[in-house]
Amino acid sequence: MTGKIKISIRNLYKLFGANPSAALEHVLAGAGKADLLNQHGHVLGLKDINVDMREGEITVIMGLSGSGKSTLIRHLNRLIEPTSGRIEVDGNDVLAYDEEQLRNLRREVMSMVFQKFALLPHRTVAENAGTTLKVRGVRHSEYLAEAHKWLERVGLKGFDGHYPHQLSGGMQQRVGIARALTSNSPIMLMDEAFSALDPLIRTDMQDLLLELQTELHKTIVFITHDLDEALKLADHLVILKDGEVVQQGEPQHILLNPNDPYIEDFVSDINRARVLRVRSIMTPLEGGVVPPDAHGEVGINDTLESMIAKSGGDTSHSYVVLRDGAPVGTLEMTNLVKALVPRVASEAGARNF
Known about the structure:
41% of the residues lie in helices and 23% in strands. By secondary structure, it is an alpha/beta fold.
């Protein structure tokens, strides 16, 4: 990860209706989504979206149905044109692209993995995986060789000559991922890519994506309505409601510091022990001095669930936290227990005393 901003979205608005530019004036004057529809006959899709997506990271856009997440991702490759705003990729204004530049963006810069797989039924698995290269004019033997490589990488070795109807849903989605990887594009757009899969297959696909990302460091924009999936995958999490960003940031921070009742409701039922990491609740070392009475050492990315098992549930224990073998902080089990209680619940408990 370089920290470089790969995709930048600024002041993005999208209104659906007969005269969106005129309706935008009402939104800028304070009209909400319901008022815009009832009084002006337009639908507010996105409102003043400002998001930076960094190179080599997974940015997850999440929200309930109708929140605008799929509308947002389709703006990145201009499948949907904005009413107002700016979108930059590598510092270039995508909205100023002509047809040739836009075609290049979609063929070589951004690949897309869909929820419905979008495989061509009359083409083999290998031919489907090589579709993007075929469209670019790459020779049949060359794009099949590249497709074979990525099909093997996603666990489909030996299925090259099969057709989509001969594969399970999870296998078909692996073909979709292989197709995106075969294009060798630096950006992958994944719109509810795992939502149609059974829970166990979905978990396998999430693990596969994280494994590939460790190796390839793609810039991935992932859309989901599932918070567990978002927390597992995201380097940067953006939560939408009614077309607006309610909160964005590092997932662990959002889970511990929800800034809106909507977010608090979202995170209230999460298994915090399984999701939260030691790094989020540790105390940084002061002056690099390691406490002599610590009960052991733990990794900075260990889950709180693993810490409970390690300590045997003893809240008197404390541990030295290591990053790459060097001590960077301490973990008190009493702080871990506090972190397991959602903020709303803990605040309500405090008010009862």
